[in-house]
Amino acid sequence: MRTPHNGAVVQRRSKTRSYRQSYRSCLGTASRLGLTPALTARRLNASRRAAKPQNDKVNPEHLALLVKAEWQLSYVTPLYQFRHTQLRSYSRQLAAFIVAEKQQGLAVEVSELHNSYRVSLSVVQGLTESEDDAETVLIQIHSKPMFARQDEPQRSVWSGWLTCVHGSPEYLRSLPKDFTCLPLFGSRGPEYLSRVVKSWFQKTFDCCFGSLEINHTSLQWFAALWTDCHSQSHIQHLRMLWTIPAAPPLQITYTVDHQDAWDLWNSVRKGPTAAVAEDAASIDLEEVTGFLQALKSHFYRHFRLDLSAGTLQQVSTAVGSAKSSGRIKMSNSRHVIATLTLLTECALLKMPI
Amino acid sequence: MAETLCLSDSDRSSSSDQSVPSRSNNRSLRIAEKERKKNEAEDSFVLALRYFSEVEAGTPVAGNDELDRNLAVVEKVAFSKGLSPEAISVLLEFAMSLRMGTSPCVRVLKCLIPASVVAQQAVVRAVVWLNVSKIPISTQVLFIKWVLTVFDLIDAKDQLRAIYGFIFSFITEENLCPYICHLLYLLTRKENVHLYRVRKLLELQSKLGRQPFLMHLLSLYKVFCPELVTLSIPSRIRSGFKNYISPWKSALAAVQKSNGQQVSSSISAAFTIKEKSISRKRKHCHLDLPALSSVLNKEPQSEQTSRRKMVPLVHLSSFAQMLKDMHRIELPAQMGSLLGSSLALQYLDCVQEESALLRLNFWLGCALHEEFLFCRQTSEEALQFLNNLLSAQHFLQEGFSSSDAFLYKFLNVWDGSLLRPQILGLLSNIPVIPSTQIGRLLFEPLTQLFFTSSMFFKCGLMECLNNMLLKWLTWHSVYALEDDLDISLNSHTSINITLSGFKDSVMELVHFVGRLASLGLQLEGCNTLLLSFILDFYETVCDTFLKFGLPLVVMPPPGVFYPALLATDPVSVDRLAYIMHRYKLNLTSAKSQEKQTEPQQAFHISRHTFRQFNHYLVFMVNCLWNCRMFHANTDMHVREELLHKSNVPQYWTRFDFIHHPAFTGYAVDFHQKCWPGKKDVDVNSIKQSKPWSWYLEYLFNQGFDGLKDFVHSSISRQVTAGDELQDSQQR
User: Fold this and answer.
1) Domain range holding B341?
2) In angstroms, what separates the C-alpha of A209 from chain B's closest C-alpha?
3) Which of A15, A121, B310, B579 is the most buried (most CB within 10 A)?
4) Residues with Cβ < 8 Å from A337, sequence gap 6 or more?
């Protein structure tokens, strides 16, 4: 897999140099730019490995929590002084923080609140690809409703994770060791809890969150990657949602039968097909655009409507679904890694420096 | 008081007699007048209050002018300044006792705007009146709404709590119930919760249905005494009591604002306020500077360093204190907070920590990207944020790398008008960009913006590029001296930027501005304002060697030189002359230094630059001084026949010091001063040797110092100008 020069964006300044843009360091910055066609022209990888089923190393219980749910995605700047060994203490702090935030709006002191939230932060072992990746962290918040009976058990009300799968090694290595890079954040649950969790992370690890949309190109990649999975797990169908900027706006749901999609995909694949050389197969951007182009021209032949004028909003198969608003659902545990790899790449592209 | 009143009266009478009162007299008069009016108003207000406290019950309302007048006075005071606690007590008593019936009661209630606080006693008395007099229900509702509005302003709540049961009894009144529930919600304490009250509420609930106000009160009861309320309450009832329309709210806010108070009054419980602030936050959540707070999460390793006790930055309050604890300052939890405090910036200025700076840059970059990259309109917060950032950069005298990275992206999507001063300010802080990158990162987007924007943007951009160049040159002059011109970088970085690399970048920038300027002047018809900004830029460029020690001289392109020379305003010509003078000094000193240094050192100014300079100089001298404008070997090739055809007499003299459009006015003025008697003005008579030198003297005295320097340095009056030029032409 080739990686473009996007890693060079964070160029470490040597410690001996002052942070000031002295003549030296300003040229240091300049040299950073010298390496960076990446800076304004950073792009997704043009080629990636085909998804191959794995996950035998990931705890199935944890994996079950990740799949079958829709996650709202964000990107996160690197966490400062985050320690995987301190998760237990972080859990306590986060729980206390949530209670404190909850109480801010109340007119009276409510003692019950204190024990109403149970937070657990845990490591999802094995959800990494390269040695530079930091271990994935899973956050779960359990609570019971405010006026529940005493004996009612606590339910999971919110969950989220921070992950880095196959992050650009150049970028990860360029960070000082005080930083832990977990650029992809997924959350599920009430919005106010997401807000509280984010603000706790911001306050504690001096990081920032921003929304992560899945753009047109990434959605095309998902369409191709998931179709490519068909040989291992049945995709049922390939469904795409397009919007056409017409007046009134036109929304088109385009569903392709699994066999047709698979045949078309195999026809645009160059060289040995995935079925033949399963292991070393890599997918090129050319093949992806070719696949989508074929789908579009098929549509045009039937409806005289060119989908190129519109934008792809949503892609869904039985393996997963992705929406341009930044929502992702991974339905099949076997292809989680491939999906997260692409998303990690998207998140790293959003890093401000 | 009475004295001033008398005085002002006498003043007034005297002023009407005197036709021309002195200024001081007039002023004291006005002050006295104001004083008198104020006193009058106060008096009438006091009288009105006395009327309301003493008026007999049963006085007729209809046709009662006195009542009308007094009500008007009270309303005026209430809505302008608010009412004192005593006034509120008097008026509330008057209204609730229904001494004059219900219609004045409503009117009085509506103007009860407290200036400071409300006496609890008055509220308690009024609540008691609720039961005694026959107040219509709508008026009762109005009163309870008023109590809710001013609840936070009531000076104590203990007596109100004491009549909790009394207030509770109103809950059976259907129209009052929601408001009473709200009031009870605000008053309830644990000891107020009793089984019979819970029963009453449940009974009401079965009658009225699951009303939110009842649910709220019950939920509060349940919080206090869960054993009494067995009812299950949905975990998510819509938070907050309905925000009833309250006639006092805006008036109260206005009065408090003008009184400079920050007492927050609120009919809405804390819920709704919080909701609001969150929704506002959600829009621009990245723009709030984080609070300066110490680290929440102490590192385990800090135990070993705890021998050296750390001082959080937030505990420091003065520069002296900071100096004292310099070695043990602890950085805040969120580096973004440093931007908001000048003390912290001072610390940042000398801190050497790489990760601290990286944290700040992550935060800043994220905020800029999230809030501005796709921002389409200006908001107060955005403006505030960028101004903060600019003042921080100004303080540190440099930009942040994340804001540079942001700008390279933003320039491609910018419309050139959104937050223009701020964006241009940030842009001028960009550090040196290698010449291989500068075109793509800077010039391409800026060219597009320049040619599609208004004149003012063009001027703004010129100023910004001038500032950028100044900063680059200043960095060079400071650090080149330090490093003794050996500025190749150490092996840490992959690209060595040498002096020549730096020179290339500067040259690229200057050439770029030259291109923009030439075309910009054409597009805007040689606009004087734009020309002035362009000449600003060249004032920086012409001095690169002498002022900043950079062995580089770049001449302005013809598209800038000729419009400036032939400009119709004398200031532009004067500035051009100054610039040419400085160019000459720079070139001559560069040349003499070049002779001294070793030949192999890359210290060389190209022949082309000298040639171009001489070319401009010859033209300028020929034009202004020698009256040989269309001399051969100049850029201006106009055919002889064409010049004859134009019928301009003596066309070759048209741009000398006398006939140049910028100076004709001066020549005529000089002529009149020199020969005051002469009727017909023949400015050519100035050409004679003596008047000519007087004329020059006259021009220099008008403040044309540039011309003065230019004439003194480039034209030797004894020797002919040509010889002088020979001198500067030798290489």
Assistant:
1) 284-414
2) 8
3) B579
4) A51, A54, A55, A127, A129, A165, A166
Rg of chain A on CA atoms, in Å: 23
| Domain tally, chain B | 2
A24 to chain B: which residues are within 8 Å by CB? 479, 483, 487, 489
Residues B292 and B390 in one domain: yes
Q: Which residues of A touch B404 (CB under 8 A)?
A: 29
Residue pairs between chains A and B whose CB atoms are closer than 8 Å:
192
Contact B431 A110 (CB under 8 A): no
Residues of B in contact with A210 (CB under 8 A): 286, 366, 369-370
What ipTM describes this predicted complex?
Answer: 0.86
A179 and B358: CB-CB below 8 Å?
yes
Mean pLDDT of A210-226: 93
- Work out the number of other CB atoms within 10 angstroms of the CB of residue A275: 11
**Is residue B364 included in any domain, yes or no?**
yes
Q: Are B291 and B384 in a shared domain?
A: yes
User: Mind listing the pLDDT tens digit for each residue in A148-192?
Assistant: 666 777 888 999 999 999 988 888 888 888 899 999 999 999 998
- What residues contact B471, with CB distance under 8 A and at least 6 apart? B398, B428, B429
Cα nearest neighbour of A353 on chain B? B402
Does A78 lie at the interface with B, CB-CB under 8 angstroms?
A: yes
Residues B278 and B314 grouped into a single domain? no
pLDDT one-digit tens code per residue, B29-83 = 666 677 777 677 778 888 888 888 888 877 888 778 888 888 888 888 888 888 8
| Beta-sheet strands, E only, within B157-209 | none
A44, A346 Cβ separation under 8 angstroms? yes
Q: Does A109 touch chain B (CB under 8 A)?
A: no
The least confident of A71-80, B464-473, B594-603 is B594-603
B333 to chain A: which residues are within 8 Å by CB? 203-204, 206
Judge contact between B181 and B164, C-beta under 8 A: no
Closest CA to A316 of A294, A332, A302, A333: A332
Q: Is residue B262 part of a domain?
A: yes
Long-range contacts formed by B201-208: CB under 8 A, 24+ apart: B201/B171, B202/B231, B204/B171, B204/B172, B204/B177, B208/B174, B208/B177
3-class DSSP state of B488 = coil
- Sketch the domain layout of chain A as residue ranges: 1-43, 53-213, 216-324
Contact A13 B270 (CB under 8 A): no
- Per-residue pLDDT at A233: 87
Closest by Cβ to A352, choosing from B335, B405, B496: B405
- SS3 of A328, please? strand
Q: Hey, of A6, A147, A178, A203, which one would you mutate to test binding to chain B, going by the most B CBs within 10 A of its CB?
A: A147
Residue B368 located in a structural domain: yes
Chain B residue with the nearest C-alpha to that of A202: B334
Q: Which residue of B has its CA nearest to A78?
A: B362
Q: Are residues B354 and B377 in the same domain?
A: yes
Q: Do A27 and B293 touch (CB under 8 A)?
A: no
Per-residue pLDDT at B7 exceeds 70: no
Q: Which of B386, B414, B442 is the last residue of a domain?
A: B414
Is the distance from CB of B504 to CB of A30 less than 8 angstroms?
Answer: no
